[in-house]
Specification:
alpha+beta; globular
Length: 182
């Protein structure tokens, strides 16, 4: 069962970003784009750090057998089984398992090494930043987005930086700095 969390401290911040996106999309009506300066300004206002979200559990050293309860998890069975014998690389007791999903898209799973539970992550284009000492995941960091699109004058709507907190086998989106209107 998925649990939902609300982090009231970030509601106003996300509202500011939504206003920026709405203003831009009303101007262009098609796929909204930001200039490099606009994207940089928005992303610099987000200041999350791995230290702000420390892991809450210490690994007991056990490797539970992974639970393959969906087709997508079964499709990556070999990769997940190989990674299930490694040490945690995320949030104390978890192993992030990254895979390529064709062309420039990538995905990941989060494996609880102690219980064998597997959560499906989000698809992304450029990068994941995470730490064994933190519950924070940064998807397509602002630095990577700006570097990737450095030859352009604008940053396309699909280029966004997401800050996710992993809590009780679920992702909580703390902020999304840019992206298409939902």
């Amino acid at each position: 069962m998925q649990k939902s969390f609300t982090l009231f401290a970030f509601v106003a911040f996300l509202g500011v970003i939504s206003c920026t996106k709405n203003q831009k999309s009303q101007e262009t009506k098609d796929s909204p784009e930001l200039t490099f300066g606009e994207f940089e300004k928005i992303t610099k206002s987000v200041n999350f750090s791995a230290k702000d979200f420390p892991n809450e559990k210490k690994w007991n050293g056990n490797h539970a057998k992974p639970i393959f309860d969906t087709d997508s998890k079964k499709n990556y069975r070999t990769l997940i089984l190989q990674e299930s014998n490694a040490e945690p690389n995320f949030n104390g007791i978890y192993r992030i398992i990254e895979f390529s999903a064709g062309s420039s898209w990538h995905g990941f799973f989060v494996l609880n090494l102690e219980t064998g539970e597997i959560s499906e992550g989000v698809f992304h284009e450029l990068s994941l930043e995470y730490s064994v000492d933190s519950a924070l995941i940064v998807v397509d960091s602002a630095k990577d987005v700006l570097e990737y699109w450095s030859g352009s004058k604008t940053v396309p709507a699909r280029a966004m930086t997401r800050y996710l907190l992993y809590k009780e086998n679920a992702f909580v989106q703390l902020a999304k700095t840019y992206g298409e209107i939902e």
